[in-house]
Amino acid sequence: MSSATRPPFAPSHTLPAPGATRKHILAIDDELPILELLQEYLKAQGYRVSTASTAMEAKRIVEAEAPQLIISDLQLEETDGLHLIEELRVLLPQTPVILLTGVLFDAQVVEDNLKWKISSYVSKTAPLQSLVQEIRRLIGS
Amino acid sequence: MSTDAAQPALGSDRTLRRVLIFFVLILAVLVFVVVASVSNLNRSIATSDWVNHTHALITELDALQPTLVAAEGELSKFLLTSDPRDHTAYQEKFSELGERVDVATALTADAPAEQELFTPITDLLTRRAGLAERMAAAKKSGDTAVLDQLLAADAEHNDHHELERRIGKFREAQTDLLSARDRASFLQAQTTRWTVFSGAVLDFLLLCGAAWLIRDDLAARRLANRLLQQTNAELEDKVSQRTTELTATNAQLVAQSLEDRWSKQAIEHQNRYNLLIIDSISDAVFVVTKLMNLSRLNPAAIHLTGFEPAELIDKPLARILTLTGAAGTTPPSFDPLARTLIEGHELRDRPATVMTKNGQSIPVRLNVYPLRDRDKVVGGVVILQVLPLTP
Hints:
The complex is a heterodimer.
Chain A: E1 24-28, H1 32-44, E2 48-52, H2 55-64, E3 69-72, H3 81-91, E4 97-101, H4 107-113, E5 120-123, H5 128-139
Parallel strand pairs in A: 1-2, 1-3, 3-4, 4-5
Chain B: H1 2-81, H2 84-107, H3 112-141, H4 144-156, H5 159-280, E1 284-289, E2 294-297, H6 299-305, H7 309-312, E3 321-323, H8 336-343, E4 347-355, E5 361-373, E6 376-386
Antiparallel strand pairs in B: 1-2, 1-6, 3-4, 4-5, 5-6
Helix pairs in contact in B: 1-2, 1-3, 1-5, 2-3, 3-4, 3-5
């Protein structure tokens, strides 16, 4: 689908249909094209995806329906992604979180310093398939 | 597929043709049986008419001689009594005899062989009637001599015996014919029975054959239907399998397309982030090639020099930058910047001056970092910090 014919993307805040059994993922990023791609790809993989481009939207979705997994960018317009993750983990202490960022981290640095905040780290330069593998590892298909 | 569909159609046409042939044969047998039966019935009716006719003839024959005897009895009474009433009775009896002869003559009119046998009988009866008439006439006229002569002549003839013999012979011939006709009638009835029975059996066999053909055709149709259903099921399985493959391939293509878009997005993001980092530095940053030509500069560098990027790109760094020695010293006799990139080591905190676009000379502190790509120096980053002006 070309970008000219693609409908304008907007963050999804819709509640799931009753009886829905697909696992719910919350994706947070301030770049709408990134959210659009994540939602499209993860839906094709069988997940139900809510998207938020701000911290406020993310908190509203978490309060409306707790996701089984959170994917968050590091650098958001209003706040730091790691700070937002801390706030969300207060609400959902058992929910795994994947940090998805273009800021290149050393994997060992993440393991040593951020493991108490996030469950996994995936670079934006990595293929989407590796993100899906992490999701499956954390919450299954 | 088209061959499978055509085979039952051809088979059906062949079966239909055969069944039609069977029904035509059944119809032909029925027509033959009806024609033969009607013909035999007609023959039986004709035989029955003939039997009635023969019985009527025999009845008349049997009545001839008694009627003659009765008439001649009345004549004898008249000859004895001369009573007119006896004469009348004698005439009536002979009239009755004449009527019987007429009936018998009519019954034998169409049969020459019977006429041949009956004519002598008629002649004898005519002669007896004529003799009686002459006797009665002689009696009436009182001519006893003629009467005696007639009676004497009659005594010499043996007409009654001859009449009985001829009637018996005729009757025997008619009885023989009756027997023959009776046998023929029996044979006709038998023929009719066998014709009807044979036709019924043949029609039954033909109907059984047609039923067998129809049953065979129905079995073939059921088999063709099962084969068609089986073929359809196999086709549906193939279509389903192919659809699954296409769906999987499409999903892979969609996933690949998303991966490509994601990759492009990631590269753009990374580039933008990298540029953001460089552009956010407040010191003037210049990227130079290994030959010390400018390839990139950040907004702080543009602001410092006053040049637009297009005016500096691919120009030598020396156009805007000059190394200076420490206060009271002379500048080095060799280009330490070129040497830095050739030798691949850093150059830190070296004094220099920047010549701006409007001709102003600004003192700066210079740092040079070589850009290494797989252990090979491909260029360098030059960072200039503007020195505060001394009062």
